[in-house]
Amino acid sequence: MKMKRKSRTTSEKRTRRRNLLRTCISVLILLLFAVPMFGGGVQPLPVIPAVICIAMYEEFYFSVFCGVLGGLLIDTACFSPLGSNAIYLVCVAAAVWLLFKGLLRRSFLHYICVTAAAVFLRCGLLYFFTQVLMQNEGRAVLWTNVLLPSSLWTLVTALPVYWLFLPCERFLRGIPAGNDFRLTGRTAE
Questions:
Q1: Higher-confidence residue: 94 or 177?
Q2: Residue-by-residue DSSP string for the chain
Q3: What is the pLDDT of residue 189?
């Protein structure tokens, strides 16, 4: 008859604490980057790069949860129908997680390319659903004065999101700072 372990080892406790702390910091970063969106006017949407960054490094279900949370934050900030951006960011988080799990390496260049694709796809979908299908007047004004500047500002805010998330990720995963993986985000495996 096997004896059950009464408690976890010190290493297991430390790993569990680090995972919990990493999860809390990821959600805090996501909420931190949601604050500037509530200012009104043409604003960047830094939640999109934050969700992509989280999907690059975290597990699938947590990535999808952050996609839902980020989408609901964008919906409330932009006064769009509740759930429309949440559905979009869930799909983006799942696709990014799959891309970085099997195909792409975790690097800064891949992060920027995936972020640009996600941001401009959202911009194009929003333009298509609000202007082309509804046949509203002033379609060019919406594109040049609202959607394109917002998308470009979102790409600019992708840089601080990455540079804020990467050191936290490295510290909490236990990767030494002396490794030459500053720009790539690769782990020393």
A1: 94
A2: -PPPPSS--HHHHHHHHHHHHHHHHHHHHHHHTTGGGGG-SS---THHHHHHHHHHHS-HHHHHHHHHHHHHHHHHHHTPPTTHHHHHHHHHHHHHHHHHHHT----HHHHHHHHHHHHHHHHHHHHIIIIITTT-S-HHHHIIIIIHHHHHHHHHHHHHHHHHHHHHHHHHHT--TTSS-TTT-----
A3: 45
**Does the pLDDT of residue 177 top 60, yes or no?**
no
In the prediction, which pLDDT does 6 show? 63
Asked whether residue 188 is domain-assigned, the answer is no
Phi first, then psi: what are they for 180, rounded to 5°? -90, 60
Q: Per-residue pLDDT tens for 78-111?
A: 888 888 889 999 999 999 999 999 898 888 999 9
Q: Classify residue 150: in a domain, yes or no.
A: yes
Instruction: Dig out the tokens for 173 from the structure.
Output: 């995963």
pLDDT tens, residue by residue, 116-162 = 999 999 988 888 877 777 776 766 777 777 788 888 988 999 999 89
Domain carrying residue 72? 43-173
- Inside any domain, residue 59: yes
Tally the domains of the chain. 1
Report yes or no on 181 lying in a domain: no
